[in-house]
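ok so I'm stuck.
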Amino acid sequence: MLFAGGLIIRTRIPQRTTAQSEEEWWRINLPRALMVWSLFEGPALFGGAMYLTLGTVVPLLVTGVGLVMLLLNSPNRLIEG
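replied:
not stuck anymore, here's the structure
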């Protein structure tokens, strides 16, 4: 559910226009970007801790999906769209 929430918020981050500077774009969209990253990072960290605690495969899969989502939504990818 958290990954889906992150993807929904990600769709609401607009692409940077040519008239808009990069600093201005980050000033406007940084709260949304931080929310997206935290919704991907939180389950990844929790899954990693659960994998180390329980030793089962499912938390490791959650960690892997979270890390992939973070890579796909890196700062450069947010600006370029």
